[in-house]
Amino acid sequence: MSNFLETASKAYYEGEPILSDEEFDSLSKRLGFSKIGHSITNGIEHFVPMFSLRKVYSTDKFPVEMSGYVQSPKLDGAAVSLLYINGSLVLALTRGDGKTGRDITEKMATLVRDSLAGYDLQGHVQITGEVIAPLSIENSRNYASGALNLKSMTQFSERDITFVAYGVQGVLSSETWEDSMSLLRRDGFNTVDTFDSTEYPTDGTVFRVNSYKDFTSMGYTSNHPRGAFAFKENKQGVQTTLLDVVWQVGKSGVVSPVAILEPIDILGATVSRATLHNIEYINQLNLEIGCEVEVIRSGEIIPRIVRRID
Question: pTM score > 0.85 for this model?
Answer without folding.
Answer: no
